Amino acid sequence: MRFKRELTRGRILDASYKLFAAKGFKQVTMKDVCDITHMSRGGLYSHFPGTASIFEALLQQISQENFLDIEGEIDKGTPATEILNSALAQMQKEIDHPEDSLSIAIFEYAQMNESEVMIDLNRRAVDKWAALIHYGIKTGEFKNVDVDETVSLILYSYQGLRMWSRIIPMKKKTPEQIINHIKKQLIP
Amino acid sequence: MRFKRELTRGRILDASYKLFAAKGFKQVTMKDVCDITHMSRGGLYSHFPGTASIFEALLQQISQENFLDIEGEIDKGTPATEILNSALAQMQKEIDHPEDSLSIAIFEYAQMNESEVMIDLNRRAVDKWAALIHYGIKTGEFKNVDVDETVSLILYSYQGLRMWSRIIPMKKKTPEQIINHIKKQLIP
DNA sequence: CCTATTATCGACACGCGTGTCGATTCTATT
DNA sequence: AATAGAATCGACACGCGTGTCGATAATAGG
Question: In this model, does residue B67 exceed pLDDT 80?
């Protein structure tokens, strides 16, 4: 008599993901979530006390899913160039399909909640990339670059790209150019 | 009997600039502007029909002020490296003092109004940078880089930087690293 | 089938921002 | 000083989102 709760919760999260990806964080109201899940205000509120709570649950879910496990691949001994290519391909995909990505919502959410979540997400991204580059340098696949600088370059150009690709019609080759630039930095 | 209008309009714009810089676009209400300008709703509405209108006036004002006139400097024959340094210094300044910058507000505004303003601003930024790099290559000051790629790199890493510097405590040297990277790309 | 518990409903009161409009105050001009 | 027109005021009605709460429906376990 206790499992239906989890089921509904999952339904709410799935539906909300689409809303947040499409509209950003602040633009999503509890009313929107009610409509899309065909629930009433009361029913919904008994699961989540507000959109922030839903979004946090989503963030947690995402950060656990961990799309590309760089550390794991390193342990497996996958070549650094291969990991790099996967990671960059993932970036490209997100830029090509911004409507499936929470990036804008995360940004808005981060602005209003100076929560640790963002700092944590960022630190983990930095650590992953740093680990990959160190690894590539060690195996001799990558040039002996300044790791810190390269990580900053990758992360922030990527952030800029995915934020603005939503706003400005961007030439198709623009993300490719930046990805190529990153590759040129790393691969001799 | 007709000039007080312009005066008040200027006062409203000045005050609003601070609000938008501090809070972004959507977070600023007509009430806020009333409070900060010590006007009533009616008075304010007789000047601007809404925050969007105020913001557009600000954008226009800014795009006319034209902080660094790259084309002008090129015509004057200023060395490309010097122009580059000024432009990058300006970027650095904006990242160091995000509270004086409209960047977030512009981003928010752009999201809700798929207006030409953004596309125009972006195109002009692209053109300026492209002109500068072409110029530097021609005078032999810059390496013979792929202009398009370098412009993308500069603009988007800069965008990423200034958006996220508001959210995440950023190491002081991070913007310097990116600026140095850009210089390394261009200057032999 | 019965019942205790859980899940869901939808009306309610509230806060906040919007845009309007008739009344009022200023002010340049004569 | 008188006055017409401009500038400003602030109360009003409205829409929208929020969070609550007592009532109702659904369901697992006996």
Answer: no
